[in-house]
């Protein structure tokens, strides 16, 4: 109990000082030096940690990490966890009910069923749809494409993958789609690019040309993937246009909504996902904009049977449970954590409206950064943001070096991406603590004279 109290105390202090922006947002001490500072080798060899030792260890451990609650955290698409999801992690850590088999966690499985029912209704699939939660978007995309493969090539599970299948994706799609194609046995050459506009969005008018090109290559589409939204830019594809084309041509339509599907909860932004109900499958990560801790990603299919067809496994020691209740037939994982509890508790505390307001505020803050940047000399933005992701450049120099300078002193965490072959700085607004003061400070820091960005490079 002393150790538990110490843990809660240290975490509370960590969140408080992070939200106030007191320490650096990121530290990157070299692993060998950090291992020494944490005393890892000694604790591993000798054990004997007490509650007081634990508190001191945790204090250093937290201080040396990345502070997602910090206003200057503008790096990656990883949630700033809300406290109900953290409580769910504690419950799972103690109860440890791996509920892919119903008898191993009836309450956890039931919570997941209801969370999935809510997600299916929100997307527009309703009672006819099916779903499962997985440990992350990469597994979710893989699972969805397994369902697509089962639909197009139902004998692939037993006979192997036909050599003529193709996966149609825009270049801006998440790397996990190409990885999934390789894992599924299609091979990277089966991943065929869609024509896109200058910002990487699918050019719907040119989809017939793409299909003809695929057929001339002796291929048939296994699935066509659209972004909602794109990982690099935060821009949404025209889901209704793409979905209509896929329906007219009998092509499985998969939507990667890992990051942007949460905009369905915001009345002011759900139009960005117009046509989502046309998808045959989609993924939706709760550990991004639904503020759950990592990982909790949904795989949703418009027809429940399509998801059930993704896996065709036999194991007499497992597959004998209560029909319709076991989730193991829909997912790679057997020992699956109580993922639904994290989403449920966030909903139970904040409600749909509260989570939707969180999404809307983050999108609004990102738009504010775009407004501030476009008013300043030297800054250029290639597009007006649609989500909480903003890309921009300052000057003509090495943008990656600008990022490194900010990361080195821990003042801000940014990422970067290429748009049209040109490197841009990339800010992802996730933390509730990020405000106008933060944004102005970021732009000031990027444009500092010692950065020498105009016409030159920034020293690391």
Automatic annotation (TrEMBL):
<dbReference type="InterPro" id="IPR002129">
    <property type="entry name" value="PyrdxlP-dep_de-COase"/>
</dbReference>
<dbReference type="InterPro" id="IPR015421">
    <property type="entry name" value="PyrdxlP-dep_Trfase_major"/>
</dbReference>
<dbReference type="GO" id="GO:0008483">
    <property type="term" value="F:transaminase activity"/>
</dbReference>
<comment type="similarity">
    <text>Belongs to the group II decarboxylase family.</text>
</comment>
<keyword id="KW-0210">Decarboxylase</keyword>
<keyword id="KW-0808">Transferase</keyword>
<keyword id="KW-0663">Pyridoxal phosphate</keyword>
<dbReference type="Pfam" id="PF00282">
    <property type="entry name" value="Pyridoxal_deC"/>
</dbReference>
<dbReference type="InterPro" id="IPR015424">
    <property type="entry name" value="PyrdxlP-dep_Trfase"/>
</dbReference>
<protein>
    <submittedName>
        <fullName>Aspartate aminotransferase family protein</fullName>
    </submittedName>
</protein>
<keyword id="KW-0032">Aminotransferase</keyword>
<keyword id="KW-0456">Lyase</keyword>
């Amino acid at each position: 109990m002393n150790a538990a109290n110490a843990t809660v105390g240290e975490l509370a202090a960590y969140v408080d000082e992070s939200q106030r922006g007191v320490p650096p947002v990121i530290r990157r001490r070299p692993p060998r030096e950090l291992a020494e500072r944490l005393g890892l080798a000694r604790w591993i060899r000798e054990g004997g940690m007490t509650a007081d030792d634990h508190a001191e260890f945790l204090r250093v451990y937290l201080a040396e990490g990345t502070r997602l609650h910090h206003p200057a955290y503008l790096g990656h698409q990883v949630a700033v966890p809300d406290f109900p999801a953290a409580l769910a992690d504690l419950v799972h850590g103690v109860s440890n009910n791996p509920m892919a088999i119903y008898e191993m966690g009836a309450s956890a499985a039931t919570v997941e069923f209801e969370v999935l029912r809510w997600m299916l209704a929100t997307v527009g699939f309703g009672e006819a749809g099916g779903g499962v939660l997985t440990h992350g978007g990469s597994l979710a995309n893989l699972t969805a494409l397994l369902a697509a493969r089962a639909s197009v090539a139902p004998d692939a599970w037993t006979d192997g993958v036909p050599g003529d299948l193709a996966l149609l994706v825009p270049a801006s799609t998440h790397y996990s789609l190409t990885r999934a194609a390789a894992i599924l046995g299609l091979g990277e050459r089966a991943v065929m690019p869609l024509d896109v506009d200058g910002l990487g969005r699918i050019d719907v008018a040119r989809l017939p040309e793409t299909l003809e090109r695929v057929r001339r290559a002796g291929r048939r589409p296994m699935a066509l993937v659209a972004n909602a939204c794109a990982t690099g830019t935060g821009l949404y594809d025209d889901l209704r246009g793409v979905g209509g084309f896929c329906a007219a041509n009998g092509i499985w339509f998969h939507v990667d909504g890992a990051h942007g599907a949460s905009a369905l909860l915001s009345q002011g932004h759900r139009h960005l996902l117009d046509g989502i109900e046309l998808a045959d499958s989609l993924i939706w990560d709760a550990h991004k904009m639904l503020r759950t801790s990592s990982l909790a990603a949904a795989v949703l299919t418009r027809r429940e049977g399509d998801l059930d067809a993704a896996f065709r496994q036999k194991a007499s020691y497992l597959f004998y449970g209560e029909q319709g209740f076991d989730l193991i037939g829909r997912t790679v994982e057997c020992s699956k954590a109580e993922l639904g509890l994290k989403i449920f508790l966030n909903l139970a505390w904040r409600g749909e409206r509260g989570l939707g307001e969180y999404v809307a505020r983050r999108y609004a803050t990102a738009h504010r950064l775009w407004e501030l940047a476009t008013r300043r000399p030297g800054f250029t933005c290639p597009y007006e943001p649609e989500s909480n992701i903003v890309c921009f450049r300052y000057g003509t120099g090495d943008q990656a070096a600008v990022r490194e300078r900010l990361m080195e002193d821990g003042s801000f965490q940014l990422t970067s991406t290429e748009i049209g072959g040109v490197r841009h700085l990339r800010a992802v607004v996730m933390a509730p603590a990020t405000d106008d003061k933060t944004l102005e400070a970021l732009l000031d820091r990027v444009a500092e004279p010692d950065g020498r960005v105009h016409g030159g490079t920034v020293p690391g």
